[in-house]
Design goal:
- The protein has 279 residues and is α+β, with helices and mostly antiparallel strands.
- It has two domains: 17-160, Jelly Rolls (Sandwich), CATH 2.60.120; 189-278, Homeodomain-like (Arc Repressor Mutant, subunit A).
- Helices cover 41% and strands 16% of the residues.
- It contains ten helices and nine strands.
- It has helices at residues 105-113, 125-133, 139-153, 172-188, 195-201, 206-217, 221-239, 245-251, 257-268, 272-278; strands at residues 17-22, 35-42, 45-49, 52-56, 61-64, 70-74, 83-89, 118-120, 158-160.
- Strand 3 (45-49) and strand 4 (52-56) form a beta hairpin.
- Helix 7 packs across helix 10.
């Protein structure tokens, strides 16, 4: 399996690929030609899609577009019990002009939106039941359930996962470099990371690294790092309400409460205390 990009394992001559991930989810930055529809049966963690950092939780339904770089990093507290069900397909999986047929006019807008990735805002009971039915069923019934899922996705609200899409596919060399950058950042964001250190991880000069990262994410590295820290702070603010905000700031890599408040406000448009109160 290549680092990035790589191909989804295809055990049979199927247009629709079903996959289960248990334990630690695939936490290396990667991309694949297939559109990925995933249901988090159990677990929580950090999700990076394109240029944007999110958190995922049990019962989340996520759609990652074709060749959209992404990673799932399980929360250590749930990594042993994490469970994700995924379906993979391309717009040509069932024939070159399959989705161009008038039968699928209602799906064309949905498929177009997958380019930025989607999160289904509130999966209804039909969606969750369809996902649970995928495991112990025939390939044909799984195919039928897949189209029922697409139909349901059209009926519920969704929001994009990524704002910016790098217009080119990553080569294997660039994929290894971005993966090294992301891996180090995901594992060390709570520590002090300076430009020399992260540029060294990418085997680049500081100026070359800054240009490289900005070109591929449409933001500076430190903007991305701050967003990652703030997203982690959001999780801690809600899951550990008894912990003081200044302690959470320290756990997320901020040396002072005032700096944390300022950075948090820039990302979330509210202070950490307001976020905790409003959620």
């Amino acid at each position: 399996m290549k680092v990035l990009p790589f191909k989804i394992p295809k055990p049979k001559n199927l247009g629709l690929i079903y996959q289960e991930d248990k334990g630690v989810l695939y936490d290396k930055l990667h991309q694949h030609e297939e559109i990925q529809i995933s249901y988090i049966v159990n677990g929580k963690g950090t999700l990076v899609v394109g240029d944007t950092v999110h958190h995922y939780y049990t019962n989340d339904v996520l759609i990652v577009g074709s060749n959209l770089p992404h990673l799932f990093k399980s929360d250590p507290s749930t990594s042993d019990n994490s469970f994700m069900i995924s379906l993979f397909f391309t717009e040509e999986s069932f024939g070159k002009d399959f989705f161009s047929l008038d039968d699928f006019n209602s799906l064309k807008h949905l498929l177009k939106k997958t380019a930025n990735g989607l999160k289904i805002s509130k999966p209804n009971i039909i969606i969750t039941q369809l996902f649970h039915s995928l495991k112990n069923t025939s390939d044909l019934n799984r195919f039928i359930a897949f189209f029922k899922l697409l139909d349901e996705f059209n009926k519920v609200n969704s929001k994009p996962l990524s704002k910016f899409i790098y217009p080119k596919k990553y080569t294997e060399n660039h994929g290894r470099r971005m993966q090294a950058i992301m891996n180090y950042t995901m594992n060390n964001f709570s520590s002090d990371i300076d430009l020399n250190t992260i540029a060294e991880k990418a085997n680049m000069t500081k100026n070359a690294f800054c240009n490289y990262f900005k070109k591929r994410t449409n933001k500076t590295y430190f903007t991305f790092l701050n967003e990652l820290r703030v997203e982690n702070a959001c999780k801690l603010l809600l899951e550990n309400r008894e912990v003081a905000i200044n302690e959470i700031a320290y756990q997320c890599g901020y040396s002072s409460l005032s700096n944390f408040n300022r950075k948090f406000l820039a990302v979330k448009k509210m202070t950490p205390s307001q976020y905790r109160k409003n959620h």
